[in-house]
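Q: I'm building a small set of examples for a reading group on sequence design. Run inverse folding on the following structure and report the sequence directly after it, with nothing in between.
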């Protein structure tokens, strides 16, 4: 299984857009992206790097497999 690596805020938004998410939209303290009925909160309003642990939780919540994510590099 390929290893995940930390990604920047911009890279996360870019890849999620390619995977069909719309946004980012503003709402409260954090931005969010939408795909159908799924609303995914995007962390790091200061656009710092997103850790592997947090990335795994985001991917799980979005229903994206590691293979899908890694295939986008």
């Amino acid at each position: 299984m390929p290893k995940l690596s930390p990604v920047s805020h911009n890279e996360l938004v870019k890849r999620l857009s390619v995977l069909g998410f719309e946004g980012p939209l503003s709402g409260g303290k954090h931005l969010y992206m939408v795909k159908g009925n799924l609303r995914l909160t995007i962390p790091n309003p200061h656009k710092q790097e997103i850790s592997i642990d947090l990335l795994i939780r985001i991917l799980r919540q979005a229903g994206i497999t590691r293979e899908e994510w890694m295939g986008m590099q």
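The CA atoms of residues 45 and 56 lie 18 Å apart.
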